Amino acid sequence: MSELSVKHLLGIKYITKEDINLIFKTADHFKEVINRPIKKVPSLRDITIANLFFENSTRTKLSFELAEKRLSADVINFSAAASSVKKGETLIDTVNNILSMKVDMVVMRHPNPGAGVFLSKHIDASIVNAGDGAHEHPTQALLDSYSIRERLGEVAGKNVVIVGDVLHSRVALSNIYALKLQGANVKVCGPKTLIPKYIESLGVEVELDLRKALQWCD
């Protein structure tokens, strides 16, 4: 049985191409499961997962919760808006309170870049980053790559353009890391004011003309 090279999923930049292939292979298996009449498997039975959302996100939160329940995990939901964070409790305080409940895994969305990395140095539970500031959103990027693979057969060698506000997008950054890791050619397209100045250092080309970008990409 293959295993991931990392304990946490903090960002695409921390994982390998082999990790991505293993995640996709596992996803293929679970995709068959969700098309069955009974959509539940015992893969995460006796595993307790805390969903910590310090920032609102209905779609991401529901997606994680549904996946966790279909894999038979025990789920604790925590929303910062209705918690002691409002009274000045720190991130570490909050997490330690939750870990005292013997949590095995934490799924966290946080407005501060690097919150997941900070947390991983202080707690034993595995952490899945569900978006940290304008830094990364690894699960969304994996889903995007998985969709490209399903539609086009593979990601390697494909021309992919990311359009819009790249500067403030954690999904765009995770997508760049994921696509490059799998051998795709990547361009970004948008107004100069919404493209990060360092973007070309990631091996990405900038195209300011949307028509040209669309003619180039797969």
- Bulk shape: globular
The fraction of residues in strands falls at: 15-25%
- The number of helical runs is 7
Biggest sheet details? 4 strands, parallel
Calculate the mean pLDDT score and round it: 91
Q: What is the CATH-assigned architecture of the largest domain?
A: 3-Layer(aba) Sandwich
In CATH, the topology of the largest domain is named: Rossmann fold
Low-confidence stretches: none
Q: What is the number of strand segments? A: 7
Helix content: 25-40%
Radius of gyration: 18 Å
Throw out a few tags for this protein.
7 strands; 2 domains; 218 residues; Rossmann fold; 7 helices; alpha/beta; four-stranded parallel sheet; 17% strand; three-stranded parallel sheet
Structure description:
The structure is a single chain. With 218 residues, the protein is of the alpha/beta class. The chain has seven helices and seven strands. Helix 5 crosses helix 6. It is globular, with a radius of gyration of 18 Å. The mean pLDDT is 91.
Topology:
Blueprint: H1 17-34, E1 48-53, H2 58-70, E2 74-79, H3 91-99, E3 105-110, H4 115-120, E4 126-132, H5 138-152, E5 159-163, H6 170-181, E6 185-189, E7 205-207, H7 210-216
Parallel strand pairs: 1-2, 1-3, 3-4, 5-6, 6-7
Helix pairs in contact: 5-6
Summarize the structure.
This protein has helices at 17-34, 58-70, 91-99, 115-120, 138-152, 170-181, 210-216, and strands at residues 48-53, 74-79, 105-110, 126-132, 159-163, 185-189, 205-207. The protein is an alpha/beta fold. β1, α2 and β2 (74-79) form a beta-alpha-beta unit.
